[in-house]
Amino acid sequence: MDKLKMHSINKVDDNIQRVGKLFPNCLTERINEKGEVEYAIDFDILRQELSPVIVEGNEERYQFTWPDKKKSLLLANAPIAKTLRPCREESVDFDNTENLYIEGDNLDVLKLLQETYLGKIKMIYIDPPYNTGNDFVYEDDFAQSTEEYLANSGQYDEEGNRLVQNNESNGRFHTDWLNMMYPRLKVAKDLLAEDGVVLINMDENEFVNLQRLCVDIFGECNDLGTIVWDKRNPKGDAKGISYQHEYIIVYAKDKVAFLDNCKMQRPKKNAEAILKKAEQIFRKINLLFSFEQASSEFAEWLAYQSDFTGGEKAYNKFDEQGQVFQSVSMAWPNKKRAPEDYFIPLLHPITHKPCPVPSRGWRNPSSTMNKLLSKGLILFGEDENTQPRRKYLLSENMYENIPSLLYYGGSDTVMLEEMGIPFDTPKVVDICLEHIKSFTSAGDIFLDFFSGSSTTAHAVMKLNAEDGGKRKFIMVQLPEETDEKSEAYKAGYKNICELGKERIRRAGKKIKDEVVLTDQNLDTGFRVLKLDSTNMKDVYYNPNDYEATLFASLADNIKADRTPEDLLFQVMLDLGVLLSCKIEEQEINGKKVFNVADGYLIACFDENVTAEIVKAIAMQKPYYFVMRDSSLADDSVATNFEQLFATYSPDTIRKVL
């Protein structure tokens, strides 16, 4: 229930709202003395509104800014002392999968991934909070200095989280939303490959600011366009125009590099179905139909397909070889007259007389027209009085340019209910799949750091099953608690991560059950990693803060509750080794040794490591070898350590914790 104010009206707030109604361009946002966002009046602009001459003031320039933008940038660049801890019991096929599911605040996770996945992500596909009044739960502390932020990393508020509900009471400030999104997109950009792309779903509430944010981070020159998704369902609670669409903003890391590798085309949705039906009918010629009857049957079937587009229905003919085609005009499309070479007439193949030439000439020069003739791709009439047309084969035009309008009124709610996954407003798997297929290749890595119900992971697995691809996904999600009244909570999902992981498990099983897998090992597993404070004690980072007399008691600089595998994953992050790499455990003289990526990294965190163990590891010639600073059995082993590696593997880079 709303609480009573128990005080008189704040006339300043009332006056600000009144001025804002008269001069909307003067209404802005600022941070008050309490560190809260509030509405304010831009007096420089107000003075200009009330003056018939130019008012002197700050130099005008084109810019996009908001309160705390600089602090938001500082936050994006600030280091953190955290790690990702593996959770085998919640993973699926941990030892073999190349997919990752990461729980934790996505800004911290993105920072941890910066070195390891720098330039390795082909597509970032996110559906971030829309700022509708109750849908984003990330709070970042701008009051801390870099040192404080580093020292307090891993600490949460008194409720055990870093969440703040974006309620109606705080005015749904654009500032809050921008400060949440800016550092995350800023860090995420570095993860993209040079020919990488980011797709962002958004509704009308923050679409304009998101577009400006992307220009600020990616650059206007890298804008690939915006897809308007018509959801065919107008909002029923609208107080103005009832929106029935959302936006998908598309930006490249480097537009030139991206377009060098991507044609920006998508498969025609029903092309395969049309070719298959044409083949079925064509086979009946001489058995049930004449060629004319078969052609009529095919055209009639195509006309009755209500979900086919007009462009698809235009392919309503097949020739004597069964090739599906449509006929199109070959007239010069521009208003200006074509060059003379475009006016050379075509001779009718039977009468050998010239056919009519379009008034502005042919679409193609004579050399191209001759090639089309030789391939049988020009259609003539019964005699020379009919203007020839181009024969467009569907089999050679299976792709189309990606349009700015996407019409799809369905949802995956029913599918998720059948899977036992209750989730409100999930992304649509098939739309996600279509974009992955259109913008990327079969071996790429995909990142979704607002993963929600894990639609992106579902789409990646489904597409891999369809075309045999080896795409990999990284899902990142804050373990936001589900509402006790929600269907998800009632079904036993206490937070969004539990739901997202279970969706991947069930989707993977469903895909494997439905698809016949031939000559491929479909990866439907995932490694679960959880964001946590660093494995290292404070003395590891700040030894100067401790007296020398305490060092004996602090010889072990690793937290007591951390496992060797915890240490391994922090080392992998530190050295830039992919978190999906194959990890093998081997035993050497009773000590556990990790072999990562076929010997690229070898690590041993056990105590009392002898010279024999060091020699056995050196003989494997790893690129990196890592151990604890206190692991060597005695001073003799420490003395011989460098000599052993100099003898057996001088190029190995040795590191200690």
What does this molecule look like?
- The protein is an alpha/beta fold.
- 32% of the residues lie in helices and 18% in strands.
- It has a 10-stranded mixed β-sheet with strand order 3-18-4-17-16-5-6-8-7-15, sandwiched between helices. It has a 5-stranded mixed β-sheet with strand order 19-20-21-22-23, with helices on both faces. Strands 10-11-13-12 form a 4-stranded antiparallel β-sheet.
- α20 (611-618) links the parallel β21 and β22.
- The longest helix is centred in the C-terminal third of the chain and has 19 residues, at 496-514.
Comma- or semicolon-separated keywords:
657 residues, alpha/beta, ten-stranded mixed beta sheet
The radius of gyration computed from the alpha-carbon positions, rounded to a whole number of angstroms, is: 32 Å
- Overall 3D form: globular
Number of helices: 21
Number of strands: 23
Task: Provide a quick synopsis of the model.
With 657 residues, this protein is of the alpha/beta class. It is built from 21 helices and 23 strands. Helix 14 (429-439) packs across helix 15 (455-467) and helix 15 (455-467) packs parallel to helix 17 (496-514).
